[in-house]
Each structure stands twice: as C-alpha cells, then as structure tokens.
C-alpha cells in the first residue's frame, strides 16, 4: 500500500506516534510518504520505503499569517497524484482532516478518489471544549473522513459527547516499539545522576499548563522529605521558567535537573525508578507508556485515557487531578522497599507489552483495508 502520513512533526506524542507508525508500516513493506512542514524528530535514519515531502508556506508581506493550510492542501494533492497514494492518514482533525477534505475534493474533480483516515489524539477535542468556535469545522472534518480512529476509549466517548458524530470511531491504542524501548544497562548514567544510590523520579512533557508540572515538583518535594531522591524534568515549554522558580523557592535546585528536550529518552527512562504524570487532561499518556516499557511504574492523575494505560495498584497508582498528597503517599509506597518496587516494575512492563507495535500496527493495516474496500464500493 502507498500511504501518505500528515502530522505535527514535534516532540509531542502525536508526532512520535505518527512517525513510529510510518516506520513500522515501511518495515511491513508499505511505501510511506510523510507530508509535514519539518522532518519529524524520529525520522532521521534512511529507509528505502520512507519518503519525506516538506510543506513550505509562502511568507508574503500581504499576509499576516502564511497560508499554511493552502500550502498543505496543495502538497497533499501533488503527492497523492504523483506518488499514486492509496490512502491519506492524517493525525489531528485540526487542521489536517479539514485540509485533507479539501485535497480530496480537488482530486475528485480530476477523477481521483483518495480515502482519508483521521486519528484523533485529544487536543482537537479539548480545544473545542475551550473554544466552541472550532466545533462546526472539527465536527464536519470528522464526519467527512473515510475512517476515524481515537487513541483511547475515553477519547472516543468524549468525541461523541462533544460532537454530533455520524460514524463509528475505531479505538486503536498508541503503541511501543520494544526495539527502541527496553530497559538497558546504563549504570554509569545512574551514577552520574544519583551518585549515592538515590531513587530517580522522572517526568517528561511539553511543559504546557495542562501537564501540571508544578504537581510533579510538589510530589517530588514530599518524596524527597522521606527518601533520598533526584528528579529529572525532561522536555521544554511555556511552564519551564515558572518551574525553575518553584524549585528555587522550595530549595530543591540541587535535587532537580532540567534536561530540556531529549532525543534518546529511553536511556533516561532506563535508569529511572518512578514516573509522574499528573496531567489535567490526557487522551492516552504515551509518555507514561514509554516509561512502563522501561519497567518504570507510574504515579498519575486519573484524567481521560490514563486509566486505560496505568492500572491502579498494579503498574502504579492514579489520583484525582491535583491531589499531590495522595500521589506522594502512593509514590512512597512503591519506593518503600526494593521488593515492592520490583513488583510494580514487572507489572508495568507486562502492561506495556499489551501495547506492543506487533499487536497494534496490524490493527491499522486492517482498518486501512476496511476503509479502502468501503470507499471503493462508494466510488463504484
Ligand atoms: O500532550 C500533549 O501536549 C501533546 C499531544 C500531541 O499532540 O502530541 O499529546 C496527545 O497525543 C498523544 C499521542 O496520542 C497522547 O498520548 C496524549 O495523551 C495527548 N495529549 C493530550 O490529550 C493532552
């Protein structure tokens, strides 16, 4: 199959998933064409079945905002036609599903039908929750896609509650490629971060307000009062400076390391003992799943789809959003002795294995086949 993938080429989970999916499909013999404004971070190595088409928005003095959507639609039309794509898989309704609809209509005037699969990752829906003005366009784009998937059951339900959805939404969970994510022996790393054998607590995110990184720091403060420990904060974003200030105020600077954006996240997870994800909203929580794949138990909020990933009392614990006391209590329980930690580690890995790429990727392939068959019948 020849598949076009459209995504945000960022460090966020949707870009990571779209890239890993494309690479997995390429390994399965499909030809994959990424259509984005920048090469996604995990798309660095050469692969004979992977192609990258850069969308460059024209900057023209007349326009205050470069017309990116028009540039993207034009590129989609061009790539579908000249690379003879069978299907477009777009990640995010805003604006990708909307733009794909325009591209599809243009191609139809030229006698070419290309089905569009849209994957919802969460922020499309929460954005509409915050700004109703987007609702008609998002709803239209979801309904006009030939296939729609959501990354969790919670997101599927939420989408159907917010919008008038006239079609089925297939839940296909995010996945882990264990070739990349598996615990490796990085003893020298551990010694550098925690020279006296301290427990290593970790959080990764894009430091948006919704991630509640201040709760991570507050939970860590409570852990640190009882257990020698270090906190690694990985990623960058709008809240980073405020978090540095908070650490200064709480006199935690020597215990907390801000590492910024990291490519080899698995190497840091491999030396960690506990992952904290206290988000206010989270459709899935890929960051938590990646930690679990490295045998790291998770202390999280119970927002959105997180309970579908982190299992209460088994792979970690879930608390109400903002309940840092409960999170700290649970964290201290997991860290209380090596035997307990080991039990949680093993359960975290076992749960992560349920999301192995070898289980999830065929679900996408199967869904593509179904969408292609249905759209062929529609055209006939
Ligand atoms: O969480 C973010 O800010 C990034 C966002 C994205 O677009 O990459 O993540 C969303 O998609 C991920 C991959 O499906 C999910 O694991 C995240 O839970 C989801 N984030 C939210 O719902 C807030």
Entry keywords:
binds ligand GMT; single chain; Rossmann fold; alpha/beta; six-stranded parallel beta sheet; elongated; 380 residues; seven-stranded parallel beta sheet
Task: Describe the secondary-structure layout.
Layout: E1 2-6, H1 13-27, E2 31-36, E3 50-54, H2 68-82, E4 87-91, H3 93-109, E5 116-120, H4 123-130, H5 135-144, E6 147-150, H6 153-162, E7 170-171, H7 187-193, E8 199-204, H8 213-226, E9 229-234, H9 240-249, E10 256-260, H10 265-269, E11 274-277, H11 286-293, E12 298-301, E13 316-319, H12 324-335, H13 338-353, H14 357-379
Parallel strand pairs: 1-2, 1-4, 2-3, 4-5, 5-6, 6-7, 8-9, 8-11, 9-10, 11-12, 12-13
The structure holds ligand GMT.
Q: Would you kindly provide a written description of the structure presented here, covering whatever features stand out?
A:
The mean pLDDT is 93. Strands 3-2-1-4-5-6-7 form a seven-stranded parallel sheet, sandwiched between helices. Strands 10-9-8-11-12-13 form a six-stranded parallel sheet, with helices on both faces. It starts with a strand and ends with a helix. The longest helix is centred in the last third of the chain and has 23 residues, at 357-379. Helix 3 (93-109) crosses helix 5, helix 8 (213-226) crosses helix 12 (324-335) and helix 11 (286-293) packs across helix 13 (338-353). The protein is built from 14 helices and 13 strands. 45% of the residues lie in helices and 16% in strands. The protein has 380 residues and is an alpha/beta fold. The protein has two domains: 2-175 and 357-375, 3-Layer(aba) Sandwich (Rossmann fold); 187-355, Rossmann fold (3-Layer(aba) Sandwich), CATH 3.40.50.2000. The chain has helices at 13-27, 68-82, 93-109, 123-130, 135-144, 153-162, 187-193, 213-226, 240-249, 265-269, 286-293, 324-335, 338-353, 357-379, and strands spanning 2-6, 31-36, 50-54, 87-91, 116-120, 147-150, 170-171, 199-204, 229-234, 256-260, 274-277, 298-301, 316-319. The structure holds ligand GMT. Ligand GMT binds at residues 12-15, 17, 121-123, 151, 174, 206, 208, 210, 281-286.
């Amino acid at each position: 199959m020849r598949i076009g993938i459209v995504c945000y080429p960022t460090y966020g989970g949707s870009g990571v998933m779209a890239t890993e999916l494309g690479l997995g499909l390429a390994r399965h013999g499909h030809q994959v064409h990424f259509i984005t404004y920048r090469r996604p971070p995990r798309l660095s190595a050469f692969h004979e079945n992977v192609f990258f088409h850069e969308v460059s928005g024209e900057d023209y003095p007349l326009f205050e905002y470069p017309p990116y959507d028009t540039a993207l639609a034009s590129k989609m039309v061009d790539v579908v036609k000249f690379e003879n794509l069978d299907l477009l898989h777009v990640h995010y309704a805003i604006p990708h599903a909307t733009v794909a609809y325009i591209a599809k209509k243009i191609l139809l005037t030229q006698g070419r039908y290309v089905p569009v699969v849209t994957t919802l990752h969460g922020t499309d829906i929460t954005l509409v929750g915050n700004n109703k003005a987007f609702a008609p366009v998002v709803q239209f784009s979801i309904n006009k896609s030939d296939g729609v998937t959501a990354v969790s059951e919670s997101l599927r339900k939420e989408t159907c509650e917010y919008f008038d959805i006239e079609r089925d939404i297939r839940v296909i969970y995010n996945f882990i490629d264990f070739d990349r994510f598996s615990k490796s022996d990085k003893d020298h790393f551990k010694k550098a971060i925690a020279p006296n054998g301290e427990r290593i607590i970790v959080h990764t995110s894009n430091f948006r307000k919704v991630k509640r990184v201040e709760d991570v720091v507050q939970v860590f403060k409570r852990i640190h009062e009882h257990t020698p420990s270090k906190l690694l904060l990985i990623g960058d974003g709008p809240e980073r400076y405020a978090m540095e200030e908070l650490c200064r105020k709480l006199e935690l600077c020597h215990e907390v390391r801000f590492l910024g954006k990291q490519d080899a996240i698995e190497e840091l997870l491999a030396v960690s003992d506990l992952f904290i994800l206290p988000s206010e909203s989270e459709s899935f929580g890929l960051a938590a799943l990646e930690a679990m794949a490295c045998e790291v138990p998770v202390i999280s909020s119970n927002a959105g789809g997180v309970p579908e990933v982190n299992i209460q009392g088994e792979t970690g614990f879930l608390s109400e959003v903002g309940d840092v006391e409960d999170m700290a209590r649970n964290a201290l329980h997991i860290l209380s002795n090596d035997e307990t930690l080991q039990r949680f580690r093993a359960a975290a890995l076992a749960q992560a294995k349920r999301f192995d790429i070898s289980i999830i990727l065929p679900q996408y392939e199967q869904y593509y086949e179904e969408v292609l068959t249905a759209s062929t019948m529609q055209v006939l």
